[in-house]
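Hypothesis: this fold can be encoded by more than one sequence.
Test: take the structure tokens below, design a sequence, compare later.
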């Protein structure tokens, strides 16, 4: 999607900011940006939030890049460290631990050195490129999109394009076309990308799905409903 934005005329109409998801959501919440690809868990906190694109970041089963990693089976884990880069992923883990796995595990906010702390009975939620690399290290991997699918029989939406104000329909149309351009030029995207620890063609074509279908909107609503049901203790 970023390839499509950068290769299209839409780039002349916007100021583009790139950052990790939680920071993008904070900028949208503080009205420092108008549109952001943000973790869906942040949607309720955005004033006047509205999903404005036909595209998203979702997974119907194994997403590969969002998982709990551990040296021991999950039933033996006593502490899970929570990656600070995405609210959606850590809140998804909270819901699944409570309602799907039904385990009583201590949850702690992670620092920037938390990968080295995945040992013994301490596991961690890891997202993104670091998660793809961690797959080569940790013997136990619990993919959160797979678990959500098993729990609800729905795909999971990790991020959506959200605006904090009304956006002109002409811009939305052009924005959707720009995003779609990137998705139909995968070979060019792969030519500009490299990953030593995971096959990116597999990731872009099998792990991630991009169209925001009615079923995925249903999944977003269910996730936000379950998130609202978590107690403050669960969220702290």
């Amino acid at each position: 999607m970023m390839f499509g934005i950068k290769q299209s005329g839409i780039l002349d109409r916007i100021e583009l900011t790139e950052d990790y998801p939680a920071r993008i959501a904070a900028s949208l919440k503080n009205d420092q940006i108008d549109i952001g690809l943000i973790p869906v868990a942040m949607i309720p906190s955005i004033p006047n939030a509205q999903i404005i694109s036909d595209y998203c970041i979702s997974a119907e089963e194994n997403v590969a890049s969002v998982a709990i990693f551990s040296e021991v089976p999950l039933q033996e884990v006593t502490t899970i460290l929570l990656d600070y880069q995405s609210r959606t992923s850590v809140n998804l883990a909270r819901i699944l631990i409570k309602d799907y796995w039904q385990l009583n595990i201590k949850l702690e906010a992670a620092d920037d050195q938390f990968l080295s702390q995945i040992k013994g009975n301490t596991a961690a939620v890891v997202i993104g490129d670091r998660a793809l690399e961690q797959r080569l290290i940790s013997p136990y991997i619990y993919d959160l999109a797979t678990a959500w699918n098993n729990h609800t029989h729905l795909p999971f939406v990790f991020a959506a394009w959200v605006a904090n104000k009304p956006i002109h329909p002409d811009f939305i149309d052009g924005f959707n076309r720009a995003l779609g351009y990137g998705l139909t030029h995968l070979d060019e995207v792969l030519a500009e990308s490299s990953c030593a620890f995971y096959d990116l063609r597999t990731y872009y074509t099998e792990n991630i799905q991009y169209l925001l279908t009615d079923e995925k909107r249903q999944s977003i609503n269910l996730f936000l409903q379950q998130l609202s049901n978590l107690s403050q203790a669960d969220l702290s």
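The chain has two domains: 2-60+155-229, 66-153. The chain has a mean pLDDT of 93.
Hypothesis status: open.
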